[in-house]
């Protein structure tokens, strides 16, 4: 079975998650390819998909949104999982007691749930290094109001990412062939 892990990443944190998912899913019977959404020209050769993007202001990046919408018919016919990265910090609940990851779901999860019927959708904590920020993002990131509340660091939970990827791989795994009957019996 050939699996595509397609991602959109601006500064590399989501790329790292996608690569980790791809590595965790590799096992006999699963041929896993990790590629940027914008580099995938013809996804019809894949049997299953894991698609993810960084989320900014509760939205997936444009090339990931376009990938899903452009290939919606194909994705709806095959096993697909979606992931997002973005929330920063170590708190799992906010000041009101709400789950941080659930509260960070991108708007597209609801749309894509109806459009392609994913088997699962997951939000992961992201990473932020203000030294890596460039362009207009750099101006925003260094504004005192943003800079003081936006924690910097790598908050990706590799165990949660590995566990999720292993569950997907288990679901896609080709069952072992039944043992041949014992001819001597």
TrEMBL record:
GO terms for molecular function: FMN binding; menaquinone-dependent protoporphyrinogen oxidase activity. InterPro entries: Flavodoxin/NO_synth, Flavodoxin_dom, Flavoprotein-like_sf, Protoporphyrinogen_IX_DH. SUPFAM superfamilies: Flavoproteins (SSF52218). This is Flavodoxin. One of its GO terms (biological process) is heme biosynthetic process. PROSITE patterns: FLAVODOXIN_LIKE. Pfam families: Flavodoxin_5 (PF12724). Residues 3-147 form the Flavodoxin-like domain.
């Amino acid at each position: 079975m050939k699996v595509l892990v397609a991602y959109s990443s601006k500064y590399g944190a989501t790329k790292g998650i996608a690569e980790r998912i791809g590595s965790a899913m590799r096992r006999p019977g699963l041929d896993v390819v990790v590629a940027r959404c914008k580099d995938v020209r013809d996804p019809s050769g894949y049997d299953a998909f894991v698609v993810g993007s960084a989320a900014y202001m509760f939205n997936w990046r444009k090339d990931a949104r376009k990938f899903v919408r452009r290939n919606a018919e194909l994705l709806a016919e095959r096993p697909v999982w979606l992931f997002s990265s973005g929330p920063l910090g170590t708190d799992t609940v906010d000041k009101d007691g709400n789950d941080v990851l659930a509260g960070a779901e991108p708007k597209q999860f609801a749309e894509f749930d109806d459009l392609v019927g994913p088997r699962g959708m997951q939000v992961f904590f992201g990473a932020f290094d203000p030294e890596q920020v460039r362009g207009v993002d750099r101006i925003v990131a260094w504004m005192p109001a943003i800079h003081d509340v936006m924690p910097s660091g790598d908050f990706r939970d590799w165990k949660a990412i590995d566990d999720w990827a292993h569950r997907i791989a288990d679901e896609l795994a080709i069952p072992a062939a039944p043992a041949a009957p014992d001819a001597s019996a």
